[in-house]
Write a structure and sequence with these properties.
152 residues; mainly alpha; two-stranded antiparallel sheet; 59% helix; elongated
Amino acid sequence: MVHKLHLTDEEYKQLALACYLGNWIANAQAIPGEEPYPGLEKVLQKVYKQAQENHIEGMKIVYEYGEYSCREHDGLDNSIAYPIIEDYDEQSMFENLAHYLSRRDAHNELEHSKKNLNELDELNLETKKYNEYIEEFSKHGLGRLVAKTEGR
């Protein structure tokens, strides 16, 4: 079954932005040459092709190297999409770092402790440390983070 949408040019640009961001997030951690969600790229290509065929104002669609890409867009270039991606990267970076550090610290503390803790106690310790890191990063960013190497 084929579905039709009736969108204004502005709504179509927002659809293109949503497709672009969804495709970017889905493929952000992909191994080069692999496409974990090939259906997303196919949909993005359809959205771009339709924009080119309908001459959507504010979008410059280019077809080269066997695919469509958007060279100018009132949202897909630096104006909207990249700040969204940068915000995502920054937020997830702090959360991921806090998660890895809290897991490491909880493991080290339990390894050197004589206590026999159950999984729930271990999880509570890791969560406590995670919250401490999130609070630290929220207040100071990475400004007070010190990287040490073993034995120093």
